[in-house]
């Protein structure tokens, strides 16, 4: 897997559907920690679904494996990570923060909202490039 680093996000719209880069969005993963320690997820394809190929899925799976070691391990780990490494404040709510993850070919935007009864995380996956910021 390509190296990656988690940075605070800097463009709020990219953490949600229907962004200005919708055609570059491969899809998003929605995750829920259940009672706090489980991990349930589902995948939703987007405009650039043609890029949802084996190379992308291999990288996404490797990335998720790494993220599951800390920020996506469970709800308590997510809260701790957010307090130690603040991300972009989303929805004007300190418990909803965004992080940008960059690899050689893709950009991922992880929206974290560790609250029981809601989805805890959304990971939007984009083709890298075409953006007006870096």
Explain what this protein looks like in three dimensions:
The protein is an alpha+beta fold. It is globular, with a radius of gyration of 14 Å. It has one domain (5-11, 24-127). It starts with a strand and ends in a 7-residue tail after the last strand. Strands 1, 2, 3, 4, 5, 6 and 7 form a 7-stranded antiparallel beta sheet that branches. Strand 4 and strand 5 (93-102) form a beta hairpin. 18% of the residues lie in helices and 34% in strands.
The beta-strand count equals 7
Figure out the total of helices: 2
Subunit arrangement of the protein = single chain
Distance between the termini: 21 Å
**DSSP helix fraction:** 10-25%
| Overall pLDDT | 89
C-alpha Rg (nearest Å)? 14 Å
Write out key terms for the chains shown.
7-stranded antiparallel sheet, single chain, alpha+beta, 134 residues, globular
Précis, in short:
The protein contains two helices and seven strands; from the N terminus they run βββααββββ. The chain has helices at residues 54-67, 75-84; strands at 5-8, 25-32, 40-45, 88-90, 93-102, 106-112, 121-127.
Topology:
Elements: E1 5-8, E2 25-32, E3 40-45, H1 54-67, H2 75-84, E4 88-90, E5 93-102, E6 106-112, E7 121-127
């Amino acid at each position: 897997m390509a190296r990656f680093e988690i940075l605070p996000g800097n463009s709020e719209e990219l953490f949600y559907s229907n962004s200005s880069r919708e055609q570059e969005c491969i899809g998003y993963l929605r995750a829920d920690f259940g009672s706090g320690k489980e991990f349930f997820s589902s995948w939703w394809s987007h405009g650039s679904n043609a890029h949802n190929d084996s190379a992308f899925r291999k990288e996404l799976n490797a990335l998720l494996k790494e993220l599951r070691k800390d920020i996506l391990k469970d709800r308590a780990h997510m809260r701790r990570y957010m307090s130690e490494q603040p991300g972009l404040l989303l929805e004007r709510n300190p418990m909803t923060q965004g992080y940008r993850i960059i690899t050689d070919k893709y950009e991922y935007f992880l929206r974290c909202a560790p609250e029981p009864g809601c989805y805890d995380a959304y990971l939007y996956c984009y083709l890298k490039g075409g953006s007006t910021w870096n």
